[in-house]
Amino acid sequence: MGSTRKAGRPKVPAADRILRVASEMFYRRGIRAVGVDAIASEADVTKKTLYDNFGSKDALIAAYLRGRDERWRHWLVENVERRGGPASERLLSTFDALADWMEQGNTRGCGFVNATVELPDAHHPAWVVVMEQKRWMRGYLAGLAAEAGAEAPETLAERLLILHEGANVGSSLGMLANAAQEARHVAAALVAGLPGTDRAP
């Protein structure tokens, strides 16, 4: 008898397969547009298996966002540290990392902002993940800004975060070519005067 497993389906635990499939579908098609039936079918599992592993679609959405957050944090920090340089340069390198992230297939903008647009109820479990991610990002930028000697690192971090978010939106709408690099140029003016900024732009 032939296996019911789809051809080429990786033999990984069901929960991992469900999460991988759901993450791809949620980001590409939208959270509301994708139902558990479609996810179960694409993951080659039953709906019961999906619910046994995640409990609900809402919990699966939160798991998708947590996984995306982990990947983004790792991507950002690794790329920034690999480029090196003083903290002022590393602040600008966050935009280089964002540009590379977009080129890796993340063309629909920020998955976290997209989720809040589709899920306006601030009590949805996804919002906890989104807010944690944005706070982490602001904190990461603030840490670099403080290391660079900024007088008001939190304020600088907030302004740089706005540029990150704007680059994401501009790129996802197809309005701006090289949105992340354009945001980097604006950011260079904000960090001008900090120690080590002579090579930053």
Task: Give the helices and strands, then pairings.
Blueprint lengths: L13 H16 L6 H8 L3 H8 L2 H27 L3 H17 L7 H8 L6 H23 L5 H20 L6 H13 L10
Helix pairs in contact: 1-2, 1-4, 4-5, 4-7, 5-7, 5-9, 6-7, 7-8, 8-9
Please provide a written account of the structure.
The protein is an all-alpha fold. 70% of the residues lie in helices and 0% in strands. It is built from nine helices and no strands. The protein has helices spanning 14-29, 36-43, 47-54, 57-83, 87-103, 111-118, 125-147, 153-172, 179-191. α5 (87-103) runs antiparallel to α9. The longest helix is centred in the middle third of the chain and has 27 residues, at 57-83. It is elongated. The N and C termini lie far apart (63 Å). The model is unreliable at 1-10 (pLDDT under 50).
Keywords summarizing the entry:
mainly alpha, 9 helices, elongated, disordered N terminus, 201 residues
Give the overall shape: elongated
Largest sheet: none
Query: Gyration radius, to the nearest Å?
Result: 19 Å
Q: What is the helix fraction of residues, given as a range?
A: 55-70%
What do the pLDDT scores average to? Answer: 89
Structural class: mainly alpha
The span between the termini is 63 Å
Succession of helices and strands: HHHHHHHHH
Concise summary:
The chain is mostly helical and 201 residues long. The chain has helices spanning 14-29, 36-43, 47-54, 57-83, 87-103, 111-118, 125-147, 153-172, 179-191.
